[in-house]
């Protein structure tokens, strides 16, 4: 219904203003505004030149979402490492690190730890590991989903300490993941990949 209202020039500015200003008692307000922002980005290319109020509201909502995004620990890590990402760039990092001595490429290896990172307030990072015949481990910034392996938990707010977590796994669990053989994917950002290698080795 909201998207239909956004398609109508006569209703969209008032609707967005009411939602931003809190006229509607929205459940899970933050998430609802994030969805509204995505809808607005879809209709923006088709608005007419005289819809300046709608443009202003769209910029206001974009600033709200950008502030929410910049408050994530994934963005904090990117800034801490000096990764060359733009303020509103939709980047994603994939790191796959095989267990030392594992054959095959890290992306398809069975004994591997994986870390995915995004600047998304609702899905910032996911850490997982699978060791054949021993089990699996997975957690995100919100909770631990599975820990058959008895790994230490990285935990919310500790994404920057991933290299330390790898050392803890080696010392406490006897599993040595080979950071020198890591597969790091960040799109075409080779400079970012080099900085991530340095971080893993720190």
Can I get a quick summary?
This protein is α+β, with helices and mostly antiparallel strands and 202 residues long. Helices cover 41% and strands 16% of the residues.
Which shape, going by the Cα principal axes?
elongated
Largest sheet: 6 strands, antiparallel
Kindly state the number of beta strands. 6
Mean pLDDT: 91
CA radius of gyration is 21 Å
Unreliable sequence segments? none
Strand order of the largest sheet: 5-4-3-2-1-6
N- to C-terminal distance: 51 Å
Keywords:
six-stranded antiparallel sheet, 202 residues, 7 helices, alpha+beta, 41% helix
Describe the structure.
The chain has seven helices and six strands. It has helices at 2-7, 12-21, 29-43, 52-70, 73-81, 162-173, 190-200; strands spanning 93-98, 112-117, 125-131, 135-140, 144-147, 183-185. Strands 5-4-3-2-1-6 form a six-stranded antiparallel sheet, covered by helices on one side. Helix 2 runs parallel beside helix 4 and helix 3 crosses helix 4 (52-70). It is elongated, with a radius of gyration of 21 Å. The mean pLDDT is 91.
